[in-house]
Amino acid sequence: MSILALLPPLPPFLFSALVVSGLASKALHIALHIRSLPFLYFVLYSPTLILPDVLVIICVRVLLRFHAPEGRWQWLSTALGGALSLITWGASSIQFGFFMQTGAEVAWAAGGSFLSDPAAMKILLSGISTVSAAATVLGLVAWLIHSHVYNLTGLGLQAIRDLCVGSYRARYTLIASPKQSCMASLDLRSLRRIIPAVAITVSLVFLEISRPSIPYDHLSGALPLTLLEAFNKKTATVEGCREPVVPFPELKSSHRLFQPDGAFVEQWSRASWLPENPPAGFSRWDTSPHDRAEKDNHFSFVCGSDEGGFFNPKSDPLKISNLGGEIYEPLQKAFKEHSVEVNHVVLLTLESGRKELFPAQQGTPLFDGLLASHKKQNVEEAIDRLVTMTPTAQQLTGEYAIDSKGNKVDLSNSTWENPTPEGMGGLNVRGAMTGSSLTFKSILGSHCGVHPLPVDLLEESQLEIYQPCLPQIFDLFNMGKEQPEQPKGNHSQAARSTSEAVKNPWKSVFMQSITDDYDRQDVLNENMGFTHKVVKSDLQSSHSKYKAKGKEINYFGYAETELQPYVRDLFEEAANNKTRMFLSHVTSTTHHPWSTPDDFKKEPYMSDQGSINHDLMNNYLNAARFVDIWLGDIMNMLQETGISNETLVVVVGDHGQAFGEDNKDMTGTYENGHISNFRVPLVFHHPQMPRVDITANATALSIIPTILDLLVESNSLDERDSEIASALLPEYQGQSLLRPFLSTVEESPHHGNHPPPPPPPPERDVSQPEARSHPDGPPKRSVWNMGLINAGGSMLSVTTAGMPYRLILPLKEEFEYTFTHLGEDPGETHLTKAWTLPELIKEVKPKHGEETAIWLEDAEKVGKWWVTEQKRIWGYREA
Q: Which of 408, 364, 352 is nearest to 384 (CA)?
């Protein structure tokens, strides 16, 4: 028998593929949300959920069976029906493939941006195996039942036609007969057939009209119609008029427009420290808004308001400043003794850098999950292997792990041996959260001190960043300084005095071993002020000084170690030339698919216990160890070039990375609000700074204020630059971590220029709820931390620094409200979900009390206000 004989006729098979793929996709779509749907309402409205799919099926069935007098129309009809079938088959395969990889569903609205980005296409193609498997299964099922589906549907349509039309061809004469009505021609049998059909139709129409739009409009979406969302490409444009709007008036009514210390720069008058032609990033201090509008006819920023449209700290109701507080006492002593010298800054951004792995140690939900994969008799061995995984992180943070015997871990085999004495090393923050689980939006917080824009992907690259970024600040410092001369000998900068070093200009360099083409990162880097960079294209160029020697390890590029000669050259230049260095380096090995170089020996951190496959987590852990070794190499190079004692090393994670060990329902960061995607390390390491452990729910917004505060307090700037830094410091939304972090402040009617109240003890455990102020006393205002969930425009994580509650706020109708109590459920294993806030409060209030209900109402108001305000500040509108 020929193989061709086994192949089904093409139209029936294509139709069967559409039916199987469309209904399977709808079943998956509903199943992902079934737990948050009230059962009775779901049963009542379920016919309307499948109605669009039925209409698509009928339409395609008619197209595939269409007969026309002229053959070309029949071919066109068949081709159109076949194309819709193939599109539905492919889209459903992608949905199932994506679900098998992440546990989430595809958001087609963001698909257009991925398809137009060559680097993003590599991410999509990385899941081609699961998509192919899903397509094969759907195709096989369609092949097995194609004849039955095609024929039964045809018979059904024939019955509907007969029911609606009857034998009109025999009654066409009635149309011309005024003596006999149409109803009179219908016999009792016809009425019995028509009445149920009419009743069903009326019922469906009534249910369609009466059902709640949320979530049923989203759940009723049918392939291939939902694919049209991918073509609704929204782009960022400069808003011509940025009228300040406060859709949350309660913030004003209770004295929440609080000016912490009166040190703000006047918004629209030219600052005395600003040179005639400042670098990019300082336009809001450059001239008055009207002068700026005349200077740049492209847009005007002001709409009849004196405040203008840029960010203004004086009118930010969520800003809390701690600049009125004293610097930590150990740091004060070090600064007075002039033992802290900061001539260089290295900012290391760890891709998918989870705090639980920086360093890995016992007592976290993740560590317990890792041990659960091992048999009981092997647990001690597993503990000893895991706690030695990230020795560099232990030394940078001062958080030394304990082995299975309760002893401090032996780090003698570490690639970097920290020479810093006990009790020294700088600031280590426990409780830090990222501002976005999308890498480049997160980088905006650490490099520019700004909140990201709550839209999908990096639309910020097309707009003006509303605060100066670190390279732009250093460029401003450079104005008026002499350029470095070439050294006549190998004289280390370490030998020069601080007074000499502060006169030297800064050089800002960006390095990563992967491409910078993905999602317009190259444009963003340029907008942030980086003029020197080393990226994948430089490692591949035939003109590069050090061409990459190894193979690419993932779809983005090479391992970080390919940058080693470039990093060493930069450190030597900083040591030997009269320059001050700012290096920004983003690691990438800990990004999916967590591959490491072939010569890197992997460790078996995970075993086979449990119901999930632990291979992905094991790959991630080995990638984390590889990056930890690389960080040790960087610290060694600082020591070898003699500049370690004058270099501030800042380490921060861009976001975390959720796995099945954290949450069996969803993995990855895409549209996944799990807490494991938000807890990140934050360290300010300096060998001459005393060790200060800080427990605070801070974010990367604190990085620039802390660096500026440190440069000023350590006398690492000359008089002019110190004036600039002091003026800029209170302009940023984050707090300086040289001073105790303020989770809340008490309002005062006389809030003009008075400093904030004394800070709480730094060792306070902010994971526990903070007592509310007395009803008759002044109201309290909290630090609200916002975190955008990858890809940025769908969900928002809302927390307050002094409370253990967390709300995932949907920004689109197809997502749910989610509440967790991090004090009771730090690993977020028991989520409370609902489609509306009242429904969520109804679920949460009996379990956690009235205070939680009040917090949820405030969180929604503040979150929605924040979304609107960020779009205004960024000058963003959707075109």
A: 408
Compute CA 125 distance to the chain's CA centroid, rounded to the nearest angstrom. 21
Task: Name the nearest CA neighbour of 805 among 778, 845, 775.
Answer: 845
Let me know: does 777 contact 748? Beta carbons within 8 Å. Answer: no
Peptide bond connecting 484 to the previous residue in cis, omega within 30 degrees of 0: no
The letter for the amino acid at 219 is L
Considering only 109-113, 350-354, 551-555, 663-667, which range has the smallest mean pLDDT? 109-113
Over residues 147-164, mean pLDDT: 80
Determine the 3-state secondary structure of 469 from DSSP.
coil
The whole-angstrom separation of Cα 92 and Cα 106 is: 10
In degrees and rounded to multiples of 5, residue 12 shows phi and psi of: -60, -40
* CB-based contact 862:784 (threshold 8 Å): yes
Q: Is 139 exposed, middle or buried (0-12, 13-18, 19+ CB in 10 A)?
A: middle
The secondary element (H helix, E strand) that includes residue 534 is strand 532-534
**Cβ(113)–Cβ(120) below 8 Å:** yes
Half-sphere exposure of 619 (CA within 13 A, CB side): 18
H helices present in 502-614, as ranges: 521-528, 536-540, 564-576
For residue 616, is pLDDT > 80? yes
Per-residue pLDDT at 831 = 93
Each residue's pLDDT tens digit, 470-528: 999 999 999 977 655 544 444 333 333 446 788 899 999 999 999 998 888 999 999 99
Q: Tell me, what amino acid is at 418?
A: N
SS3 717: coil
SS3 145: helix
**Terminal-to-terminal C-alpha distance of the chain:** 59
Neighbours of 176 (CB within 10 A): 6
Question: CA triplet 16, 19, 21: central angle to 5 degrees?
Answer: 100
* Beta pairing, strands 424-430 & 692-695: parallel
- Per-residue pLDDT reduced to its tens digit, 261-276: 444 444 445 577 888 8
Query: Rounded to whole angstroms, how far apart are CA atoms 452 and 441?
Result: 5
Residue 690: φ, ψ to 5°: -60, 150
Of 186-195, 220-229, 415-424, which gets the smallest average pLDDT?
Answer: 186-195
Please report the pLDDT score of residue 69 as a whole number: 54
Residue ranges of domains in the chain: 7-170+180-231, 780-878
Map residue 653 onto helix, strand or coil. strand
Q: Are 325 and 696 in contact (CB under 8 A)?
A: no
The Cα 448–Cα 873 span in angstroms is 14
DSSP code, position 70? S
Token readout for 748 is 């005062």
Lookup: tokens for 804 = 């253990």
